[in-house]
Amino acid sequence: MKTIFTIIFLLILNLSMGWAQCYPDRHSTNWFDGWVSCEAFPNPNPDRGMSHWIMYDFGQTYSLNKTHVWNSNDPANLDRGMRNVNLDYSIDGAHWTEAGTFIFDQADGSTIYQGFEGPDLSGIKARYVLITAVDNYGGPCYGLSEIRFHAEEAATTDIQDLTSHEDCFSVEAYPNPFVTKSRLIVQSQCEKEINYRITDLFGRTISSGVIGKFSGFYSMEIDGKNLPAGNYIVSIDQNGQFVQQHLIKVE
What we know:
The protein is mainly β. It is built from no helices and 18 strands. The chain folds into 2 domains: 152 residues, Jelly Rolls; 86 residues, Macroglobulin (MG2) domain (Immunoglobulin-like, Sandwich), CATH 2.60.40. Strands 1, 2, 5, 6, 7, 8, 9 and 10 form an 8-stranded antiparallel beta sheet that branches. Strands 11-12-13-16 form a 4-stranded antiparallel beta sheet, with no helix packed on it.
């Protein structure tokens, strides 16, 4: 079964297109119709270090083929657009394979901007796709408007969250899924500073901070009553060791 994933920031997932218009693939020039990152953070792929990145979770493994990309199209901030990017993919979110380094063309800021042909992924099998900016067109922040993946279903097994690091610490969220509040529980065996970040699936930061140094258990309440229902990612970093926990908000 062939599938087209159109990742449109703020709209989450759009599988339909309006073919009646003269420019069917044109994209908005609003800055808020896109992803913007102004702060680097530890990458899900440890080889990428501190960086500006977006990770997509398709929920199961697909064979990915052609892509189409719309770069940041806000006329006042075209320099935010990603330029050279690394693209990695994974089945489990823990072990990453590099698909290559690619150049994203700069958007033109017009109301009829239709993007460009992105990388052809040639049938790679992945549940997760990670795009990391190497540089941009000169702006202080990094942006991207939309990306479309052409995909086919692939045989897969269930994937468990990467929720522990055998050397130092483990992470658990309970309840999960949750309605209004959840609690993040960290067990640490190493007295080293821990940083956390909660993002949506497009890498936009919901909250972040420093837990500090401790040995034992640490519990932190996550207030999600104002969050829309969906899948969120809790990222924990301790001295270069990186763990993720998926957190699901339901209504």
